[in-house]
Design a protein that fits this description.
about 170 residues; mainly alpha; rod-shaped
């Protein structure tokens, strides 16, 4: 070995130094480094599991949110439909009330018209009787005596009144 330029004492000392360094490093650094690497590996695995849980939870929340949105849309549609039905019902009620009021107004107008008609008829009859009496008085005053005139006028007035009463019924 000396021919190769290697000294056996120096080689042995370097091997012993290497072994000492390996033992010291394995005791002092290797185990803590391996422990730290193992701890880091465990943290990464835990974080991956946690990330998977969070991802699953996020998917569940998305589904739940979509369900809530769908339920809200459905409820909104139901509210709109109910409002339409209510508006339609109220519209029908308003139309029915308007018909009722117009029927009542028509009924009152007819009653008022009937009353005015009856009143006018009565006035016309009274006026006719008065005119007829005045005409008969003038006509008869020249032909009949005053006593005969009264009898005749009374008789005709009675007939006209009876006729007017029959017309009312």
């Amino acid at each position: 070995m000396e021919q190769l330029g290697i000294e056996p004492k120096l080689l042995l000392a370097q091997i012993i130094n290497f072994c000492i360094i390996v033992v010291v490093l394995s005791k002092l650094l290797y185990k803590p480094i391996l422990g730290m690497l193992e701890k880091r590996k465990k943290e990464i695995a835990d974080n991956l599991v946690l990330a998977e849980k969070l991802h699953t939870e996020e998917e569940k929340l998305k589904l739940k949110r979509q369900e809530v949105i769908d339920a809200a849309k459905q409820e909104g549609l139901m509210v709109i439909e109910e409002a339409k039905k209510q508006a339609s019902k109220e519209g029908k009620d308003i139309v029915a009330e308007a018909h009722k009021q117009s029927d009542e107004t028509i009924r009152r107008a007819k009653a008022e018209s009937e009353r005015i008609y009856e009143e006018t008829q009565m006035n016309i009859r009274k006026e006719s009787v008065n005119v007829a009496a005045a005409m008969a008085k003038r006509l008869l005053s020249s032909i009949l005596s005053p006593g005969d005139q009264r009898k005749l006028i009374t008789m005709h007035i009675k007939e006209i009144e009876d006729f007017a009463k029959k017309q009312q019924n």
